[in-house]
Design a protein that fits this description.
This protein is mainly alpha-helical. It folds into two domains: 1-61 and 112-147; 63-108, no CATH class. Helix content is 64%, strand content 7%. Helix 1 packs antiparallel against helix 6 (114-146) and helix 4 (72-81) crosses helix 5 (92-106). It is elongated, with a radius of gyration of 22 Å.
Length: 147
């Protein structure tokens, strides 16, 4: 019976990973981004848990205008990864400061994907558990009747 449950958990985790990434991509998160790559559902202490980078919630909720400025040094790896380079005599640090200042002044528009991820994951878990457990129950009943 434990083998059945392990197989069910693995199948659910596979579907949760796939569907969560699809939701983020549909909400205009770049499919090659580290955020999408970081998505990893796990089964811990009887619960399915979404594990991802800390900024998952910030991309979902955006950033309001006038909020504390993003540390420019935190933007430099993101700039390099996305091919954002300074022009002229501007340094990476100076460009990172300009971007950081722009984020503070203008904010960042939210992607609003978290509710959809929760709704979809709940549906997937409920449907797969119901389907798989009903098959196990039917098999056990057939075995009991035959024996």
């Amino acid at each position: 019976m434990q083998d059945y449950l392990d197989d069910i958990q693995k199948a659910i985790i596979k579907d949760l990973n796939k569907s969560t990434k699809a939701v983020l991509i549909k909400k205009k998160v770049d499919k090659q981004s580290d955020l999408v790559k970081s998505i990893d559902w796990q089964f811990k202490q009887g619960h399915f848990v979404l594990v991802s980078y800390d900024y998952y919630e910030w991309v979902d909720s955006g950033r309001k205008k006038g909020v504390k400025q993003v540390p420019p040094q935190d933007l430099i790896p993101w700039m390099k990864e996305n091919g954002i380079r300074p022009r002229g005599k501007m340094t990476m640090g100076q460009l990172a400061f300009v971007i950081s200042r722009s984020i503070k002044i203008n904010g960042i528009k939210p992607k609003r994907y978290a509710d959809k991820v929760v709704d979809l994951s709940t549906d997937i878990i409920a449907e797969e558990i119901a389907t798989d457990l009903s098959e196990i129950i039917v098999d056990e009943i057939v075995d009991a009747i035959e024996n």
